[in-house]
């Protein structure tokens, strides 16, 4: 990568706010007590407070900006895996040898690390997996393996982006579906869906499921290596803490998935045919600070329009083009954990979305229940 002009660094600097969470891990590990609460406090509450102060950012960058001018934007995603790897496994080793932390303090600490690896790590993995370079895709795989969720790559790239807002996509949350029901449905269905998608891709190429090109063998090997390393560094306790942070990270990811498309559906055209994905099939948020932390993930409609567009170039949409969330993702995922509160905030917005974009549809029952036909030729 050719370094850009020095003037680019200030534009990229806010997207490095995630790195400030790493000293908080060290502080919580060495001090114990409730210092671990600084991690979710920073990622969720401080970011939401900054959103309130800084407001919305509706500026759209030039989407034709050359990749070489995005050096410092790309750099934060590229260096993140070794940083997160050190935070997870260095802390496993440390707490296994230091005697000043109680069991509850260790759980709190690894809850905070799970917030780090979910709120930041999986979001960065998502960005990396959509790129074309071998290095970036491998780093994305390693980040997902560190939270034991490697199948997300297949499910996201082969299923979600093709069939979002249809019954084929497990992570398109249905209208009225509470987060906890959604969460367990996704944990049950997504691995099977991803395996089926890869199996059909291999079959189309005349290969069998045990072919070395099946990425599930790579997924399994990377995840097994992470598990073995946790055992070596911390024994059974290290393994339990590693799995616990992975669960917290996955919970963070699926909360975000739940928010991104809740209640939004593509029009069924009959006989398993669905309209093309449009900007109005994703919830968007232009809140400044949370887009810094989440590297513009909240500009979600444009991500579905141009999946390989790098995060600094993602465009935002106004309310005439795409539905808008009242708060950024960190605040909305907190609301999602209280289903009655979520329904009070979001169901009226979904009904308004229906009136705005589909005034001719009067019966939404099959859309809400997920009982429409599966898309034709779906993986």
β content, as a range? under 5%
Shape estimate:
globular
Percent helix: 55-70%
Helical segment count: 15
- Please give the domain count: 1
| Main sheet makeup | 2 strands, antiparallel
Mean pLDDT across all amino acids: 94
Computed structural class: mainly alpha
Strand order of the largest sheet: 1-2
Q: What is the number of strand segments?
A: 2
Radius of gyration: 21 Å
Regions with little confidence, pLDDT below 50 for 5+ residues: 1-9
The SSE string, one letter per element, is HHHHHHHHHHEEHHHHH
Report, as a whole number of angstroms, the end-to-end distance.
Answer: 36 Å
Overview of the molecule:
- The protein has 379 residues and is an all-alpha fold.
- It has one domain.
- It has 15 helices and 2 strands.
- The protein has a two-stranded antiparallel ribbon with strand order 1-2.
- Belongs to the fatty acid desaturase type 1 family. AlkB subfamily.
- This is Alkane 1-monooxygenase.
- It comes from Paracoccus stylophorae.
- Pfam families: FA_desaturase.
- Residues 109-333 form the Fatty acid desaturase domain.
């Amino acid at each position: 990568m050719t370094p850009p002009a020095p003037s680019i660094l200030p534009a990229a600097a806010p997207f490095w706010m995630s790195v400030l969470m790493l000293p908080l891990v060290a502080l919580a590990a060495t001090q114990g007590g409730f210092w671990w609460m600084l991690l979710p406090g920073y990622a969720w509450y401080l970011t939401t407070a900054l959103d309130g102060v800084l407001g919305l950012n509706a500026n759209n960058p030039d989407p034709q900006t050359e990749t070489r001018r995005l050096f410092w934007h790309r750099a934060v995603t590229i260096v993140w895996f070794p940083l997160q790897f050190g935070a997870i496994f260095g802390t496993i080793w440390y707490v296994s040898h230091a005697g000043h932390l109680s069991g509850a303090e260790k759980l709190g600490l690894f809850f905070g690390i799970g917030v780090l690896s979910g709120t930041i790590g999986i979001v960065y993995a998502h960005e990396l997996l959509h790129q074309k370079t071998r290095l970036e895709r491998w780093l994305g795989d390693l980040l997902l393996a560190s939270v034991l969720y490697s199948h997300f790559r297949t499910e996201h790239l082969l299923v979600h982006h093709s069939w979002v807002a249809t019954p084929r996509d497990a992570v398109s949350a249905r209208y009225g579906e509470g987060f906890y029901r959604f969460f367990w449905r996704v944990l049950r269905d997504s691995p099977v869906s991803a395996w089926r998608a890869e199996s059909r891709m291999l079959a189309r190429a005349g290969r069998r499921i045990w072919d070395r090109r099946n990425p599930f063998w790579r997924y399994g090997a990377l995840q097994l290596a992470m598990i073995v390393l946790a055992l070596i560094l911390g024994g059974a306790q290290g393994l339990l803490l590693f799995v616990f942070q992975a669960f917290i990270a996955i919970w963070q990811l699926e909360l975000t998935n739940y928010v991104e498309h809740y209640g939004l559906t593509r029009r069924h055209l009959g006989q398993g045919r669905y309209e093309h994905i449009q900007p109005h099939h994703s919830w968007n948020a232009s809140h400044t600070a949370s887009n810094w932390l989440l590297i513009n993930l909240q500009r979600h409609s444009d991500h579905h329009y141009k999946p390989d567009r790098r995060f600094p170039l993602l465009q935002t949409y106004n309310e005439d083009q795409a539905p808008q969330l009242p708060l950024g993702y960190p605040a909305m995922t907190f609301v999602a954990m209280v289903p009655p509160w979520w329904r009070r905030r979001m169901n009226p917005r979904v009904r308004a979305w229906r009136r705005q974009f589909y005034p001719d549809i009067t019966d939404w029952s099959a859309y809400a229940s997920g009982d429409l036909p599966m898309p034709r030729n779906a993986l």
